Amino acid sequence: MRIAFMGTPDFAVPTLEALVTAGHDVAAVYCQPPRPAGRGKMLMPTPVHARAEALGLPVRHPVSLRDSTEQAAFAALDLDIAVVAAYGLILPPAILEAPRRGCLNVHASLLPRWRGAAPIQRAILEGDFVTGVTIMRMEKGLDTGPMLATADTPVDRKTAGDLTAELARSGAALMAKVLAGLDGYVARPQPESGVTYARKIDKTEARIDFRRAAGQVDRQIRAFNPAPGAWFEHGGERIRILACDLVDTAGLGAPGEVLDEQLTIECLAGAIRPTRVQRAGRAAMTTSELLRGFAIAPGTHLV
């Protein structure tokens, strides 16, 4: 099939690769424009942009698709279908209607749960036991289109980074399967019950509140790894916790109190023991490495 691929971050790269491996004619790859990054603030291509160029595919990165010139250029591709994975731009009706067989989206949740921008992080934060990917036919609403296929996976104690990589692979395989047998799939409307919205992550959500249960703090740490990173403050410095163990302390201290030389931190119910941390501007390290150069004594109250 003649396809346009539309995606931007690492999550979308496996789907692009799956289209190429399957032998589809990828007429164009759409992604977000390069953005300043690093200390030098040089313009850097997005992961999809870089991979598409490596594959020898034409890349387009318009700021918007609402312009009539961009819409005409898209229509001129004469597409059978468009495949979308975490593109980051709203597709107006003229774009949705241009391909002969419409637009299919890889969404990182089991719809209708977690429509929206941050489904993986919200699934972890809410303590979902299972999540997955959905292939849906796109329409004007936000992730409201009818579903063609789903694949689920347990959340366990995975980080957002772990789950993103897993769902990226799963979504790519499922999209390839759907495209290979497209005429055999029936798009079914999403259930009206069970709808939730995964609003965009605000950086203010990353500050750890030890007055919450240890399980909630653990989910916060996993949901915000790798970004933006759950953190507490000590000595005027932010310390990010990248991973932790859960510890049953039976209320040995007040919430936020450091209980021992291993940086076990009391929460409202239970405690956490950080295992991997990061100081501002430094590489990730073990907790023991942190404490050798940045003392946090038992009895300290963290905020």
Question: How would you describe this protein?
Answer:
The chain is α/β, with parallel strands linked by helices and 303 residues long. It folds into two domains: 2-198, Formyl transferase, N-terminal domain (Rossmann fold, 3-Layer(aba) Sandwich); 203-293, Roll (Methionyl-tRNA Fmet Formyltransferase, Chain A, domain 2). The chain has eight helices and 16 strands. The chain has helices at residues 13-21, 47-54, 68-75, 93-96, 119-125, 160-180, 214-223, 287-293, and strands at residues 2-7, 25-30, 35-37, 42-44, 59-60, 81-85, 103-107, 115-116, 130-137, 147-154, 197-198, 230-234, 237-247, 265-266, 271-279, 285-286. It has a seven-stranded mixed beta sheet with strand order 5-2-1-6-7-9-10. Strands 12, 13, 14, 15 and 16 form a five-stranded antiparallel beta sheet that branches. It has a two-stranded antiparallel sheet with strand order 3-4. The radius of gyration is 22 Å and the shape is elongated. The protein starts with a strand and ends in a 10-residue tail after the last helix.
Question: Which SSEs are present, and which pair or pack?
Answer:
Blueprint (H helix, E strand, L loop, with lengths): L1 E6 L5 H9 L3 E6 L4 E3 L4 E3 L2 H8 L4 E2 L7 H8 L5 E5 L7 H4 L6 E5 L7 E2 L2 H7 L4 E8 L9 E8 L5 H21 L16 E2 L15 H10 L6 E5 L2 E11 L17 E2 L4 E9 L5 E2 H7 L10
